UniProtKB/TrEMBL annotation:
It comes from Saliterribacillus persicus. GO terms for biological process: glycerol metabolic process; positive regulation of DNA-templated transcription. Pfam families: G3P_antiterm. GO terms for molecular function: RNA binding; transcription antitermination factor activity, RNA binding. Keywords: Glycerol metabolism, RNA-binding, Transcription, Transcription regulation. This is Glycerol uptake operon antiterminator regulatory protein. The lineage of its organism: Bacteria, Bacillati, Bacillota, Bacilli, Bacillales. PANTHER family: GLYCEROL UPTAKE OPERON ANTITERMINATOR REGULATORY PROTEIN (PTHR35787:SF1). It comes from the Bacteria. InterPro entries: Aldolase_TIM, GlpP. Regulates expression of the glpD operon. In the presence of glycerol 3-phosphate (G3P) causes antitermination of transcription of glpD at the inverted repeat of the leader region to enhance its transcription. Binds and stabilizes glpD leader mRNA.
Length: 180
């Protein structure tokens, strides 16, 4: 299994995509894109020997069901799936693709509810948003034993350091200034 660590660039635009293709990063997270773009994005990314992780909830035009996921996994050969939905992560894992459960740490109730889901489906990683609360990152990792990725509201190098020192194995950011 691919080990996700350090800064993971999260691409929102074609301009960012071109930039990250030329970078040293091995793993690319695709956030907002259209169904018509995915095939080309994956093709060019794979040609650069980089791994593709798709946030499937944010793909415009894709129905995130068994068939939509089979298209991404079997036809396009994505390396990982990110979703807020447990059934999507279960399907990804069933197809031997990295499953990243995204959860929002809004309040104690939301965290407890999401921890129950994570313990049941056992994703490969948990992405916690916002990723700027180190003690929550550590708590989620200790409670589940699953590696945690910090994402959302990470704006400075200090935010990156705090998240990584607080228990996150990696951080996702669309801020190009933090990719280096």
């Amino acid at each position: 299994m691919t080990k996700l660590e350090g800064v993971l660039p999260a691409v929102r635009s074609m301009k960012d995509f071109e930039s990250v293709l030329r970078s040293h990063h091995e793993n690319i997270i695709f956030l907002e894109c259209r169904l018509s773009q995915i095939s080309s994005l994956v093709k060019y990314t794979k040609q650069q020997n980089k791994k593709v992780f798709m946030h499937v909830d944010l793909i415009q035009g894709l129905k995130v069901d068994e068939y939509g996921l089979e298209y991404l996994i079997n036809d396009l050969k994505v390396d990982g799936i990110i979703s807020t939905r447990g059934n999507v992560i279960t399907t990804a894992k069933k197809h031997n693709v990295i499953g990243i459960q995204r959860l929002f740490a809004l309040d104690s109730h939301a965290i407890n509810h999401n921890l129950k889901i994570c313990k049941r489906i056992k994703p490969d990683y948990i992405e916690v948003l916002p990723g700027i609360i180190p003690n929550i990152l550590k708590e989620i990792h200790e409670e589940t034993g699953i590696p945690v990725i910090a994402g959302g509201l990470i704006r400075t190098k200090e935010d990156v350091s705090h998240a990584l020192n607080g228990g996150a194995t990696a951080i996702t950011t669309s801020n190009k200034d933090l990719w280096s």
